What does this fold into?
Amino acid sequence: MNQNFQVISSSPDQLYQMIIDLLPCYISIQNNDLEILYTNKSFLNDFGEATGRKCHDVLKCSAFMCGECPVKKSFEDNAIHFGEDSVLTREGAPIQLLVYAVPIPAGRDRSVIEFSIDISKIKNTQKELALLGRSVALISHGIKNLLEGLHGGEYVVDEGLREENWPLVEKGWKVVKNNIIDISMIAQNILYSSKKKALTIEKVKPGEMVKRVVSMLNEKALSMGVSLRAEVNPYLPEARLDQFTIKKMLINLISNALEACERDREKNNHFVVARALAYNELQYKFEVEDNGIGMDEDMRKKIFQEFFSTRGTSGTGLGLSVVETIVKEHQGKIEVESVPGQKSLFRIIFTY
It folds into this structure.
């Protein structure tokens, strides 16, 4: 150890180089043309050999200087500047950098040293915390709406019992049941999103699963004025699935379709069709189609994002996110077709 210390002590340049290479940041020195003159080891490892190349070419794969370049500003006013930017590593992975540009006076051949710190994890944590706050607000608002509906149904039941008006009791009880189903679905989606468990794969009949879920949600559909029916191929072979999660997937898709119909004020008659059919010789498909409000292209790109709700503050934004997770767990594929104001179709394709 003493020998190593003596070697380093006798070579200050090696000591400085070692310290620079051990720093947990990217360091580069650039001239006034933004040409890289020097990089430390961290920079070399993540961005490759950069000496002699333009900074924006190395970090952005671009022939043009960045709009708000801290290095260029430092050359202009001989002051320290900083900023944030998104760049690409040598493998093409995007990372977020906090950049400091510090001028190095050296006669005519001035240069600027750039220190860059990877803040991607911090940015991701900020996004996750913001998403968590939004999700809590969405879920709380959704549950509040359902509880208000539950209290409304309870009031109707109480009035019916007081007046011995049994049709009124039945009407109120249907409202109570529908809200209990919705609250249960929210709770299950939250649990599924927060805690993953191993799938229990077994042989099941896809058509029978569709018919059971349709039967379970039929009363809710009737109360919303929507015709819900199942279309299944009775000769569809058994498939290897996790019954619990596929049932959840179908419930979420059908519930989403029912809500799309309920929000449509342009048509008098609405329908939702749930299907289990052959796709080709090796694959089969579940489909849920509705003639509700439909979606535009921008919304179709966002619907599977966690906590994105097509219903604004009245939804939790978990349903379709859970659907996507379940499909991925079964190594399946999702296709979405939609015409704004007319219809939507979700197609889930699985291999036998």
